[in-house]
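PROTEIN DESIGN WORKSHEET
SECTION A - STRUCTURE
LENGTH: 77
TOKENS:
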């Protein structure tokens, strides 16, 4: 009888330990952005001729980066 109590207690302890280490629920929400990407971050490390909030100049800068070699895909090929 005494060994059965230890087995039950051990099984109960193992169940509690496994429950405590369970995985947290995942939500499929993803990243939510509060502002459009061309709004800027207010960083000092931006290009001097780019205006924050101007979608046209933002797209122009992205095209220039792709053309002049800041595209990692083209670098590793």
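SECTION B - SEQUENCE
RESIDUE ASSIGNMENT:
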């Amino acid at each position: 009888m005494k060994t059965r109590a230890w087995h039950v207690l051990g099984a109960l302890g193992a169940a509690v330990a496994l429950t405590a280490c369970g995985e947290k629920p995942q939500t499929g929400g993803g990243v939510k952005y509060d502002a459009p990407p061309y709004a800027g971050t207010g960083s000092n490390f931006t290009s001097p001729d780019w205006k924050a909030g101007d979608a046209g100049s933002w797209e122009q800068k992205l095209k220039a980066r792709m053309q002049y070699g800041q595209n990692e895909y083209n670098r590793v090929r």
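SECTION C - NOTES
The mean pLDDT is 77.
The helical segments are 2-20, 55-67, 72-76.
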